[in-house]
Specification:
Layout: E1 6-7, H1 13-22, E2 26-29, E3 32-33, E4 39-42, E5 47-50, H2 66-70, E6 76-86, E7 92-97, H3 99-108, E8 118-127, E9 130-136, E10 139-144, E11 165-173, E12 179-182, H4 190-194, E13 202-211, E14 214-220, E15 223-227, E16 238-247, E17 252-261, E18 284-286, E19 297-299
Parallel strand pairs: 1-2, 5-7, 15-17
Antiparallel strand pairs: 2-6, 3-4, 4-5, 6-7, 8-9, 8-11, 9-10, 11-12, 13-14, 13-16, 14-15, 16-17, 18-19
């Protein structure tokens, strides 16, 4: 995501005039939304007013819902200052636009992204089917739940927290030209994850699924093992498991449940996500081990000539 946002606080109107001249991208906390859905941000030397029509791309065309504007109260938004005038009470008023900085972000940054590019994003809200993230100046994109990690989760809250920053890979664009994202490709291959464990280890895990033939237990976001069926075990439980074997050629880890801690019965800390890929682009991701006949891969950039 483009950086360079400045805190929107000014000691004098001269500094506001400089911000207008430079076109600086600013960020401030919305203090109020009036009954016409205009937003108000205190800039220090002036009160900033962000009209509804300038609240986002498409607002002037009726493509922005009022609830999306109301929900910005008490949250940071980015904008530029387009003018400075005297208000009815004699105080300086700064006219703001979020639409203009979004259009610049779309034109100069998002439209240039290609499949395989890795970007920073901030979580805005959750849905059962995925998580919405801010990929630049309030422009949002969906990260589907099945693209979050190889280990399946019931809800995005199982993996993320509100406001969390994450890295994501551009997977393509939908029929409306909006960027689509994936995330699991940054969390490591089967072999990279399995290298953290050895047969004979006893380690913590999280129950993700209980089936008739066994219990799937997540050891890491991109690695799960299978334990035999045991009564009283439920999805979301934290367990201690003994690692019987690690079988790369079958892409399997066999586990034995040693102890069970039902969800909510103990403090369960969530370790920070570990990203195995540190660059800004990835051409392809091969999850399965070379010795495994079953290939699981994601190809972002087709080979030259294809």
């Amino acid at each position: 995501m483009p950086s360079g946002r400045q805190p929107a606080h000014f000691d004098c109107t001269a500094n506001i005039s400089e911000a207008i001249e430079s076109g600086a991208v600013l960020e401030g906390i919305v203090q109020k939304c009036d009954n016409s859905y205009n937003l108000y941000i205190d800039l220090g030397a002036a009160m900033g007013v962000l009209p509804f029509r300038e609240s986002a791309i498409g607002a002037d065309l009726g493509k922005v819902r009022e609830i999306s504007v109301i929900s910005k109260v008490n949250k940071p938004v980015c904008f530029c200052i387009t003018g400075l005038r005297e208000g009815a009470d004699g105080r300086p008023v700064a006219d703001l636009s979020r639409r203009l900085v979004q259009e610049a972000c779309q034109r100069d940054y998002l439209d240039r992204l290609a499949p395989g590019d890795i970007i920073d994003a901030a979580i805005t809200h959750f849905e059962p089917f995925g998580v919405f993230v801010d990929i630049g100046c309030g422009i949002v994109s969906l990260l589907p739940i099945d693209c979050i990690s190889v280990s399946r989760i019931a809800h995005p809250r199982d993996r993320f927290t509100p406001g969390q920053w994450l890295r994501a890979v551009v997977s393509g664009r939908d029929g409306l030209g909006r960027i689509t994202l994936t995330h699991k490709e940054l969390l490591g291959t089967w072999m990279e994850n399995a290298a953290s464990f050895s047969p004979g280890d006893t380690v913590p895990g999280v129950v993700r699924s209980v089936e008739s033939y066994g219990i799937f237990i997540e050891l890491l976001p991109n690695l799960a093992g299978l334990a035999e069926v045991r009564e009283g075990i439920h999805p979301g439980d934290t367990v201690s498991v003994y690692i019987k074997s690690i079988l790369p050629e079958k892409m399997k880890i066999k586990l034995i449940i040693i102890d069970d801690f039902p969800a909510g019965s103990c403090h369960q800390s969530r370790p920070p996500l570990h990203y195995y890929w540190e660059g800004d682009h990835i051409d392809a991701f091969y999850y399965s081990p070379p010795s495994c006949p079953r290939e699981i891969a994601t190809v972002f950039t087709p080979p030259s000539g294809c």
